[in-house]
Amino acid sequence: MPRRVGPDLAHHLTTECLPVGDVEALSVGLVDQLLPRDSDCYDEQLRDLAEHLAGSGWAEAANRKRRRRELDEHATPLGVYRAREQARMASDFARAEGSLVRGPCR
Predict the structure, then answer these.
(1) Among 43, 84, 89, 104, which is most exposed with the fewest C-beta within 10 angstroms?
(2) Distances in whole angstroms, Cα of residue 38 to Cα of each of 27, 32, 67, 78, 89
(3) Is the residue at 104 inside a domain?
(4) What is the pTM (predicted TM-score) of this model?
């Protein structure tokens, strides 16, 4: 997401967890385009878009994405992200443990 909307907006979107409307998503670059709300027009445009993506450079785009992901993982392996997340979770659970209500089972 940071590549699409920039690190600041990506952080805001993922930490605030607020809904994003379709027009706003388009204006900030979260989506590439909007399809019509009318179901007949939507179905036709979706079919056209799928045919376009499947036939026009789809494989090249998928290969570019795969290569970018490989480069990203080479720079920072997924294990590093997992370890960071687990450390954060351990810290959160440790803090929360003292605040848990303890008492007899009913």
Answers:
(1) 104
(2) 21, 19, 38, 42, 44
(3) no
(4) 0.48
